[in-house]
Amino acid sequence: MIIVMKKHATKDDIQNVLDRILEMGYNYQISYSEGNTLIVVLDSQPELGKEKFIFMKNVDNVIQINKPYKLTSREFKSDNTVIDVDGIKIGGEEIVVIAGPCSIENEDQLMLSAEIVKNAGIKFLRGGAFKPRTSPYSFQGLGEGGLKLLAKAREKTGLKIVTEVMDSAEVDIVADYADVLQIGARNMQNTKLLQILGKLRKPILLKRSFSATLNEFLLSAEYILNKGNENVILCERGIRTFVEYTRNTLDLNIVPAIKQISHLPIIVDPSHGTGKSEYVIPMSRAAIAAGADGLLVEMHPNPENASSDGEQSLTPQNLTKLVQEIKVIANSIGRKIL
Ligand code: PEP
Ligand code: MN
Q: 244-286 pLDDT, tens per residue?
């Protein structure tokens, strides 16, 4: 159950509601949305009646949600959430593409990548500075040096920057440089990190973990919303299954499923989802046809020489081809490519 207080509710009005919740033996969590205080009643049973709160002073609405996730659900908010990244919208009519190398390797590689991305008509540049590698012997990223290069690329091209934050201690520094903070699959359930990101207002791109169910995925998003940051973009990036011919299995079923039960935007990463560059364009077309709000794709000016994920990185020519092909699909379902 969520109790929505009126905008002009006083501290005392809110305290009265909280006292009643505690008297009834429940706990609560407070969050804020569009100027309203929201009180989420935790562990409430369906029989906890609306009438217990709806007549209290300055209570605007009481919403019953019998799902484990509350703030992320469509019952809580029926309209799609559209996230504004400095004037560029994610989750609206337009489809966004985020492209760039898996890792930032050096200045030349990143500046060239940024030019290629911009020339393909794309508005967002991705690039990992802090890399969550499976092996400790693999390239771990340039760290803050990589963030500085991203800032330089933004200055030169005007592209918005998407980059991963792996550790709670690095949130502030990554937030200083990034327009969108990415949470990788390996950290989807790092709840301390999610809570810290919930205190920011910058958009968070939350990737699904290898083995997360839809409920677990949405509950991770709930950790961020619940601390007050509503700007969460979900990202399907493939899950572990028994198949061995691709790196992961891209679960496109989750796109319409999320659209049905949540108001948050969802984008798809066919690069990690397939692990093979030759499957990235077909699965990008499929993702847009399935209703995704965008794509996150890896592109390298010279994939054979990439420090990470070269085998799944598009060439510059194929990035341009991808944008042209998804335009046709977007138009056919009444959407546009940004
Ligand atoms: C990435 O996008 O570079 C990445 C590491 O992805 P994931 O967390 O999905 O493995
Ligand atoms: Mn990668």
A: 999 999 999 999 999 999 999 999 999 999 999 999 999 999 9
User: Which residue has the least CA distance to atom 6 on ligand 1?
Assistant: 184
Separation of alpha carbons 166 and 182, rounded Å = 9
Ligand 1 centre distance from Cα of residue 272 (Å)? 7
Task: Give distance in angstroms: CA of 102 to centre of ligand 2.
Answer: 4
Pocket of ligand 1 (CB under 6 A): 102, 128, 132, 184-186, 207, 237, 272
Query: Would you place residue 231 in the very low, low, confident or very high pLDDT band (cuts 50, 70, 90)?
Result: very high
**Domains of the chain (ranges plus CATH)?**
2-63 (3.30.70.1140), 83-337 (3.20.20.70)
Tokens 């040096």 correspond to: 145
Protein residue with least CA distance to atom 4, ligand 1: 184
Alpha carbons within 13 angstroms on the beta-carbon side of residue 19 total: 7
The span from the CA of 294 to the CA of 95, in Å, is 5
- The preferred substitution site among 269, 296, 299 for testing ligand 1, maximizing ligand atoms within 8 Å of CB, is 269
pTM: predicted TM-score of the whole model, two decimal places: 0.93
Q: Span 39-55, mean pLDDT?
A: 84
Q: How far is the CA of 185 from the centre of ligand 1 (A)?
A: 6
Q: What integer pLDDT is reported at residue 46 of this predicted model?
A: 67
Is the predicted pLDDT of residue 216 greater than 90, yes or no?
yes
Phi/psi of residue 248, each to 5°?
-140, 175
Query: CB-based burial of residue 298 (10 Å sphere; 0-12 exposed, 13-18 middle, 19+ buried)?
Result: buried
